Amino acid sequence: MNEQSKVKIKQLPTGVPGLDEILGGGLPEFSFNIIAGSPGCGKTTLAHQFIFANATVERPALYFTVLGEPALKMLRYQQQFTFFDAAKLNNAVRFVNLSQDLVEHGLEGVLEEISRQVEAANPSIVVVDSFRTVLRSELHEGKDMAVQTFVQQLALLLTSWEATTFLIGEYSESEVRDNPVFTVADGLFWLFQQVDRNSVVRKMQIMKLRGQASVPGLHTFRITEAGLQAFSRTLGLLGQRKTFTSVKRLSMGIPALDEMMGGGVPEGDSLLIAGSSGTGKSLIATQFLAAGIRAGEPGIAAVFEERPNEYTARASEFGLDLQTPLAEGSLEVIYLRPLDLSVDEMMQEILDAVKRTGAKRLVIDSLAGFEMALAPAFRADFRESLYRMIFALTAIGITILSTLEMPETFTELLFSSYSISFLTDDIIRMRYVEIDGQLSQIMMVVKMRRGAHSREIRQYQITTEGIVIGERLKNYVDLITGIPQPLAVLRSEDQLLNRKV
Amino acid sequence: MRSADAPTTRELAQRLLTHEGVETGPAITDMQAVCRVCDKLRRPLTTLAGAAGFRSLLARALTLAKQESPVLSAWEVQADGSLQGLNGEAAQSGGVLIAHLIGLMITFIGESLTLRLLHDVWLDLPDSEINFERNESK
Question: How do residues A412-443 score in pLDDT, each as one tens digit?
């Protein structure tokens, strides 16, 4: 069938930020949908967001309540959300109680009353809450209509009357099979609430959506005073990979380091700065951001251990003015509340900040802090989530610098923990070494995916002017173990051994 | 203070009763006016809470009203949500019952939505009559 002869399915906005993207553009008009999940997971709120976003006086929403939460209490709680519009009540959004019809006349009575109301109101949206209670067998036992017939007739009625429908029910996943409701449904939204240690995370899955491709998998969502906000696993960025015709190098703000990196970090790369505590990783990150601001490239710092003002105050100790760009809007410091975060929320925050600032550079300081800020349930997926995040952000041309605290060992050189080096294009390693009875610091560029780089191991110092990189340490071996040996000593030992031989 | 105790709620209840009296003509008794207001509130409250929910709300309102006006002691809410045992002497206190019923609505859904529902029921009453502001002219 050619494109012109295909029926075009209109997509309705769900009113839930992030959900339209997960659905592949919005909710198909006239679809017959189920919102399922355990108590308290946000089913009713999701339905309310949808009706308040779409219902009009001409094409209202009919909200049928059955034996679950009465509309009186629903109104009490739903009006607390900012999407609730009292002006729509009783004209664009109308509640109908079906309890009596169900108890007295069973499924037939319910279907009759829904038909009567639908024909009278000409609604664009119909919600039945809770549909599960409608179908409970004890309520219609001995009455004429079978559940399957009821569901089919209801779907037929509501679709014929051009209504987009939501049936809300407290179902468990084991009920999906062999249940006529799920067979008839065009869309199946499953909301989960998972408890892990002391935190609760909410996730949703679009298990079925006829007519269009939704983003598969579990997506996190949060319920705030604005209602549900969903975070797509991909944030719609996977298909948008930005291609660079030539590799532009971004300055790190430290000329000697730019030189070691072959001219700076390639635009759109993910750079990892790994080192133990106090080696100056955060300072490099700050200098990287400051260099960007000087070059007219807005930046974002995602920090987990200090607040924005503390962050800029620390930068000023090294002569870096981040307060002005922060005030002017070319820099944003994102400080996220710790302990119950999801990577997807973090990504959403960053993407919103990218849109606001036009940022080209992003600092994540640090990955350990980021991991700690995640709800325990998300920590298990940290590596996979980080991969998605880095891939998605670099795809839109953001250059990412992440810092990573490494345990210092004096027998080996780890390039990074978490096995995340494969996620990064470039790695700089900083570490302590003992030289002439003093603790010194060395730095090396370990990996540059898109070009040649210096192989030198350079000493550096942290000064009030920032990182100052010194010369290559030519007169030592085993520098990367942290306990180097002076070449002169080794030579004399060799000579001694040779003489003995 | 309960919402029903607010002078503005009392005034609103009284205005609704007066309106029903005027609407129906001089022959209507206070008792009938109370019944008419309750009946008119039955529709939106049944929609929002079901028939049983309406009955529960009316019964609760009557219990609160009886504590305040013992003359209402003979009044009962029947299974179908209608009032029984109304007597002429107590009907003068009918406004207390209506105020408590409106007070319960305010408790559950707030002033704004309560007013909206009342407006939808008494479409013929001007906005100035259905509000919680004190009407000094009356």
Answer: 556 555 566 667 899 999 999 888 888 899 99
Out of B53, B108, B113, closest to residue A89 by CB: B113
Predicted pLDDT at A454: 93
The phi and psi torsions of B89 (rounded to 5 degrees) equal -65, -45
Selection from A157, A158, A185, A156 nearest residue A169 by Cα? A185
Of A242, A467, A246, residue with least CA distance to A360: A242
Backbone φ and ψ of A418, nearest 5°: 60, 0
A65 interaction partners in chain B (CB closer than 8 Å): 50
Strand spans (E) along A394-486: 399-405, 426-435, 438-448, 457-463, 466-472, 476-477, 485-486
Segments of chain A scoring below 50 in pLDDT: 501
* Dist CA A248 CA A25 (whole Å): 34
Q: Which two tokens stand for residue A25?
A: 């553009």
Which residues of A are less than 8 Å from B55 in CB distance?
Answer: none
What b-and-e string marks burial along A326-360, b requiring 16 or more CB atoms within 10 Å of the CB?
A: beeebbbbbbbeeebbbbbbbbbbbbebbeebebb
Query: What is the value of pTM for the model shown?
Result: 0.74
Q: CA-CA distance, B114 to B118, in Å (whole number)?
A: 6
Give the CA-trace dihedral at A476, A481, A483, A484, to 10 degrees: -10
Distance from CA of B35 to the nearest CA of A (A): 22
- Determine the pLDDT at residue B124: 87
H or E stretch at A288? helix A281-294
Comparing alpha-carbon positions, the chain A residue that sits nearest to B49 is: A70
Here the tokens at position B15 are 């205005």
Residue A348 corresponds to which tokens in the numbers above?
């959403």
DSSP A216: P
Under the banding of pLDDT at 50, 70 and 90, the label for residue B138 is very low
Backbone angles phi, psi at A433, to 5 degrees: -135, 155
d(Cα A9, Cα A22) in Å, to the nearest integer? 17
pLDDT for the residue numbered A369: 85
Q: How many residues in total does chain B contain? A: 138
Give the model's pLDDT for residue B100. Answer: 95
Structure tokens at B22: 């005027």
Rounded Cα gap, residues A155 and A159, in angstroms: 6
The pLDDT of residue B1 is 65
